[in-house]
C-alpha cells in the first residue's frame, strides 16, 4: 500500500478512536473519570457508577475496528457474566450509545504486576513468587472449570492489592512479595475462548498470535510458567556486561522450582495435566519450606 494512503488510514483511525472526555456520562449511569488505556480492540476508562456511587471500568469497542471489536466486546460481556468469581470483575451492563458499544464492569483493585515490578521495583523471592502463582492458578482453575481458557494470562492482566500496606504509602517500597492476605484479580477476557473452540476468524492484519493459540488449559499453564519466570527475574541483577544465558543458568532456583518451570514451559518432564495438578505441586513445594 502506498505510504500516503497508509498515513491517511492511520490518521482516520486516530480520529475515530479519540477517547471520550472526562465528565461524559454513558448510559445515563457511568461518568467517565479517566482513560486507563487503549488496547488493540478497545478503549478502557475508569468511571463512576452514578447509581451505586462506586468506581467501575468501562470498555468501549474501538470504533476503527468496526464489527470485529463489537463482537469481541459482546463475547467478553457474555463470559464475564458466566464467570462468577470474586477475583474476576463482574459485568455490570452492555450499553449501546451514539452508535458505540460499551461494557461496564467492576473495577479491579490494586495495580498490575507489570507496574508492581517495573514501576515500583518490587522483587519476589522464590517462595513469594510460588505463593502468588498459586493464588493466580486458583482463579485460572475456576475459568477452566467454567469451560473457558483465558489465553492472555500475563503480568499486565493481573492486578494485586496488598492487605496491610497501601501502594504509594511511604513504607510500601520496602515491602516485597506477596502474602496470604493479599488479593489478586484477573482481567481482560478479550482473547478468552470456550475450551476447544477454534480461533476466531477476525479479518484483521494486525491480529495477535495469541488469538490463534489452541483453546486448551495447557495454553494458560504455559502462560503461568512465563508469568512465574517474570516474577523470579524481578530479583535478578545481571553482572555489568554479562552475556544473556537463559533462565536455567541465570536464575538461582531450587531443583523443585526448576523442574516445575520446565514442566510448565514444556521444555522437559511430563506436562501438567491441568490446574489441579499444578496446585498439588505448589502445595507440596510450599509445605516443604
Ligand atoms: N476491570 C478492570 N479493572 C481495573 N483496570 C482495568 C480493568 N480493565 C482494564 N483495566 C486497565 O485498563 C488498561 C487498558 O486495558 P485494555 O484491556 O483496554 O487494554 P490493554 O490490556 O492495554 O491492551 P490489549 O487488550 O490489546 O491487551 C490496562 O492498564 C488495564 O490494567
From TrEMBL:
Q: Where does ATP bind?
A: 59
Keywords recorded for this protein, A-Z = ATP-binding, Kinase, Nucleotide-binding, Serine/threonine-protein kinase, Transferase
Any single GO molecular-function term of the entry would be: ATP binding
Enzyme class, spelled out: transferase
List each copy of the Protein kinase domain by range.
30-289
Q: Which residues form the signal peptide?
A: none
The reply on keyword Nucleotide-binding is: yes
Protein name (record): non-specific serine/threonine protein kinase
Please tell me the species this chain comes from: Paenibacillus pasadenensis
EC id: 2.7.11.1
The keyword Transferase is assigned to this record: yes
Q: Which SUPFAM superfamilies match?
A: Protein kinase-like (PK-like)
Q: Which domain of life is it from?
A: Bacteria
